[in-house]
Amino acid sequence: MPLLQSIVHRLEPALDGARLDIVSAGDVHPQGSDVMEALVTTLNDTYNTKPKGWGRFSADLEEVDTSFAGGLRRYLADGSDFTTLAQHLTEQLARALAEHLSVAGYLLFAHQRQGDTDTLLVALVHQREGIGINAEHHAIPAVQLNTRQLTLAARINLTQWQQGDAQSQYVSFLKERGGQKVAEVVAQWLGVGEGLDAPQETRTLLKAFSDYVEKEAFDEEASREKTDALVDYATDQLSRGETMTLDELSALVDERQPKAFYEHIRHADYGLAEEIPPDKRTLNQFRRFTGRAGGVSISFDSHLLGNSIEYDEAADRLIIKQVPKQLKEQLKGHD
């Protein structure tokens, strides 16, 4: 992923404990740095696996020069200085985080391009103590960046934003459990109104898929193939930090009738957006049902529910219609 511009500032608590001080970089990071590109790639990979909030810039703030969106617009429109943009945004964030002085570290801004898509990644990275080996082969203390832990981060799909798609959720930001307050501060700093609940949207999509498979009465093999197609697509989009689109998904779910699943969603009025941010936890729960209690352990693929496996909620019973051969032999031989 080509790195067009990048810069790193440091946020650290002031001695009086009343604010966050900024230790600024003098200029952007030199271009063509393999180390910086590797760092940004690693941070992207980490960010893609984290729970996120999704949304769009508030229309009321997009034209305000002092806002996040306003600064970005000037930078993209007239090529204004990336250093000035990053400094201005860092100062705003430092003020917003003044009540959360434990939130300190290296704040990285990276304008990157992949194919025809430009994005801006912002990530606060912390250091951790480690051990290294020096030239004399002696163990020595070594400080390194903890690229697997992010306190706050956000990514803006600049291309989608500039295209002006009214449905696009082109801003995402870190929203982990226990970090709700920081997420709120970041959303306010970005000037974003959270538009979609990723877990809820993903659950609704999976419900629509289950209804579609049941309505079409696919056999077990076809159901498995379609389930795998959906989950594989969602997982791939998740790994790339991108949303799922209903058109693409519909074509993958049923290649012979590429619009069938899409039409099912629209006619049944599930209220789904055209683009849906995938939620990792929800997807993992959908692929398999598992449970263990009182010496009984059960696990089965989700597509089997309603076919060879039935759940009677009223009677609290799970009915297995096709007992696995190996288990059947064990049961037959049991006295």
From TrEMBL:
It is found in: Cytoplasm, Nucleoid. This is Nucleoid-associated protein YejK. Belongs to the YejK family. Pfam families: NA37. The lineage of its organism: Bacteria, Pseudomonadati, Pseudomonadota, Gammaproteobacteria, Oceanospirillales. Keywords: Cytoplasm. One of its GO terms (molecular function) is double-stranded DNA binding. InterPro entries: Nucleoid_associated_NdpA. The keyword Transcription does not apply. One of its GO terms (cellular component) is bacterial nucleoid.
